[in-house]
Automatic annotation (TrEMBL):
Alphabetical keyword list: DNA-binding, Nucleus, Transcription, Transcription regulation, Zinc
Transcription regulation found in the keyword field: yes
Species name: Aspergillus kawachii (White koji mold)
InterPro entries from the UniProt entry: prtT, Zn2-C6_fun-type_DNA-bd_sf
Name of the protein in its database record: Uncharacterized protein
Amino acid sequence: MAGETETERVKTCENCVRAKIRCTHAPDATICDRCYRLKKECYFRLARQRSAPKKRRRNKRIEMLEDKIDQIMGQINLVTPRRPEHPYHTPNSEVSSTYPHADTIDVIKNGLISHESATQLLDQYREAMLFFPFVMVPASTTVDDLRAEKPFVLLCILVFCSFHDNSLQKSLEEVLQSYVSSEVLCSEHDSHPPSFEILQGLLIILAGTRQRHQLCRFPYYMQLAVGVVINERLDRHPKYRVATRLEVGDECDETRRGTVADESRALIGLFLLNSTDAIIRQKTCTTPWTPFIESIAEDLSRVAEYPTDRYIIYYVQLQHMLQRLDALTMTSIERHPDMEQHIRAFRAEVEQYKNQLPVDPTCDPFIATQYHTLELQICQISLIDTKVASTPSDSFLLVSRSDTLCHGLAASKRFLDYYLKLPPVIERNYSIVIWLSSGFLVAAACKLVLAALHPSLRLNTQVQELRDALDMPKMLQFFVARLDAIAKTCKDGVFSHYHKWTLAAATWFDKAYQVAQLEAAKIVENESLRFAEQNQNMDQGIQTDPNLFGLDFDITMEELMGGWSGPLLGIGHV
């Protein structure tokens, strides 16, 4: 612009116009600050001639409107850094990004969060990695390292760990959503973040899903992550990831960022997130188990770069067992003739697997939750999810289902005993996988206790002893108190919907428990003699509905889980 008056060229360069951000530069500069920083060619187009005196008033009004537009556009970037005086000097507050437009998500530079607070949140994320060890950040990596190398991952980490301050988290989420929309989904250029960095960031956001407004976006972020895996062929062995059918000459795919181990963890993390949500919410899993997933899990566990890596193979194997079990009810709720044999065989397989585990299931929170879910999922399918087409006359089915009920009651007590002994407020770092599974386990335990109250089981001492030992009403009180303590540690009610759900579940259970007890007492009073004769021996003609011992629930599992998993996808009213 040297040698030209200020009115001869527009005030905003073409690059800033396309990026829709404020263009700042010194009065005599030939390049704006942003183009200088990104090393782009800067061009100011010629302004329209304003020579007609009769339009002077109109031109002044246009100038005022242009200034107002510049002011509004400038609010997109709260802080626009000035070009350093020396071309080779970069202040400590400036971090050179690896791809264009990354400065729009540098929330430290933009003033949304301080460098010190970001460092604290990064340390907090390292603690949370124990509950979702699939996007690892080495201890030597600093906030500035992530700002320079993986700014999208850093933003997702800050969103994940800022639950203690709801207003801050929502501000960070707005930046995240805007960036995903404009630079990932709707970008018209190739300057978006590397695909693997997008996948890692999305996994962090999915794992940290907690609040109602976050949960409604869960399925869309999930499918975006699945799309990245498919597009980058991360679900294949590296030597099969090159698309040769459309290659011409020596062209080949650009080398992806991240190591093979990082890619393996990311694929396994997506598999666990997708599979757990699909099983508990009874939906289609778009990232099922494959032999390749298990093979890379074995490699990670053998090398064990991080302490949690040695458990990854067990995560995959337990989740595969859950998928196989869930497949028994995928096609129809009608019970197959040999369903009971399948259930008994599966329960024996689970017990054998537990005995062969080189570690105790409770040594790792992920393994503990998966194993307890597997135990109760067997009971859920056997007693609740499937129904017998006709009432059999033989007593084998009833005896088998009574045995399943006993296993379920015992498994429920093991889970609740384990859960209530955990350190206080440890749930703040839970991933959505553990939250989902925990909600299912509590809901299933409630239904099993109600099933144990049926009059046909009143002389089954084993069932009654297990039911009394579980003491579900008292357990729910402890559960409510524990989640209340968690909700109080965070302002703005970040975990309040989980606490409200436990209150609603406890209220429903208490009502159903009292009704079941009154009905059982009435039946016993009116037909005590007949019941005494029929229950002398369970193998002698017990006449009762094998479908959950005649218990008719007035609430489905999805309704009971509504306030817990409901926020995940917008259902539920709690």
